[in-house]
Amino acid sequence: MTPRMKPVRDASAWTDDDLGLNQSWKFSLPPVQKDNLHQALQQVKMRGLQFAEICQDDLPLPALRDTLQALSHQLRHGTGFAVLSGIPMGKYKINDLEKLYWGLCTYLGTGVTQNDEAGLTHYITDGQLRPQKETRAEQTAAG
Prior knowledge:
This protein is mainly alpha-helical. Helices cover 34% and strands 4% of the residues.
């Protein structure tokens, strides 16, 4: 017997009009959170960790605790996506941004391979190759 499908009526069934009215999926980092993120990154760099080695204990983010909890709730029980803005892209090299993103994501779940090449990250670019590790984001089309 074919299972009977029911309409989805929760926050994950959104339209573009819904997103315009409800901005709960947008998160922006104020200066104190940016400072916390920067300080945590410096600790990671001093320890010489690669991005995939980073766990929550390596990137302590007490100033972001409430924001990351709200963002996680939005992913699991809200629209199913979120936008986090305010990370100063031009301040960091690509490999530092990898560490920041991976570290932030450890607060949201467990990282797993996303493609048949077993890669843990995927770079969305404008048709160019992956940015060089020592390149700053402002030196790419992303910046």
